[in-house]
Amino acid sequence: MPGGTIGGLTLGSAVMDHRRLGRSGLNISEITFGNWLTHGELVGREPALACIRAALDAGITTFDTADVYAQGAAEEVLGEALRPVRRSSVEIATKVCLPTGDGPNDRGLSRKHIMESCHASLRRLGTDYVDLYQAHRFDENTPLDETLIAFDDLIRQGKVLYLGVSEWTAPQIRAALDLGGELGLRSRIIANQPQYNMLWRVIEPEVLPLCRDEGIGQVVFQPLAQGVLTGKYLPGQPLPEGSRATGGGRAPRFISRVLGDELLDRVQSLRPLADAAGVSMAQLAVAWTLSQPGVSSAIIGATRPEQVTENAGAAGVQLPADVLAKIDEVLGDLVDRDPSKTARMMAVKDSWNRAVPDGR
């Protein structure tokens, strides 16, 4: 399978396939549980803990968070939930870059912010190290060598095991790889965390080919396009109560980008494909991402434990070539593959995060 499936690990009541993260030696679960826009923001402590327990029961061993999610509360909830679990049996990923305060050094990829944010994340997570530490954005205001050396020092100190980036463009990733080689650094980027789903494929022209050549695995977020690909949003119908689109926080702003009637109508046309494959619409969407070359894991989020169980059921699902081709045919010209939109979309999100510093 894409990404190198190497077998299963039983952690709860289910068996979950694992894949190598790029060309590294790190194995991560096909499904990663993430808590952006949920824990500490949309759901309370007890439902959040229940979701993480459901993830463990589903065999998920990889958990993704960030210092900026709910301004640290998401890391705290994750740390609390994983405290009873043997540390070496799970892989914890977090991120640094976006604003975590009002001070001039409370953001970016300076040595000061990286070091202080890493130590704060470790305290909140209740662990001595994180398996994967990711640069949440590219920082145009900090010399790249300063950023890479700071990450390398954390790896030498044993506080970080592997290095990743999130939503960097291909030229930015290329520059970091080349400079790291010139500096003789011990650390090397082995993971990229981009937005990627049936509708949003902007990484395909440039980022994916570079990452495949360089052995960088994709841990993709929003495989459900903020829930749109579950089919619960119907064309011409009111938004369902209790959905993210009607909730608080920043979720409605993200979802509104993909709620046009034409798109929703096309999404409903995917339902017969899901039915024929014997999976739910959500499972079809997650399985699609896992079928793409270079993808190591798909990040799912949830506000209820049953959502975790359903989405995790996409692990191991093999979509036939004719189903994949039919998905492309149904979605047609609504699929976005413009590589320039990675940087443009990040600029839009960052403007939101400056107003409400808590973003993906």
Description:
With 360 residues, the chain is α/β, with parallel strands linked by helices. It has one domain: TIM Barrel. Helix content is 38%, strand content 16%. It is built from 13 helices and 11 strands. The protein has helices at 45-57, 73-82, 111-125, 144-156, 170-183, 207-214, 251-255, 261-268, 271-277, 281-290, 305-312, 321-331, 341-355, and strands spanning 5-10, 15-20, 27-29, 31-34, 62-64, 91-96, 130-135, 160-166, 189-193, 217-220, 295-300. The strands form 2 sheets. An 8-stranded parallel β-barrel has the order 4-5-6-7-8-9-10-11, surrounded by 6 helices. A 3-stranded antiparallel β-sheet has the order 1-2-3, with no helix packed on it. Helix 1 (45-57) packs across helix 2 and helix 1 (45-57) packs parallel to helix 11. The longest helix is centred in the first third of the chain and has 15 residues, at 111-125. The protein is globular. The chain starts with a strand and ends in a 5-residue tail after the last helix.
Number of strands: 11
The CATH architecture can be named as: Alpha-Beta Barrel
Low-confidence stretches: 1-10, 351-358
The arrangement of helices and strands along the chain is EEEEHEHEHEHEHEHEHHHHEHHH
Give the neighbour order of strands across the main sheet.
Answer: 4-5-6-7-8-9-10-11
Strand content: 15-25%
Mean pLDDT: 89
Give a brief outline of the structure.
One of its GO terms (cellular component) is cytosol. InterPro entries: K_chnl_volt-dep_bsu_KCNAB-rel (IPR005399), NAD(P)_OxRdtase_dom_sf (IPR036812), NADP_OxRdtase_dom (IPR023210). By secondary structure, the protein is α/β, with parallel strands linked by helices.
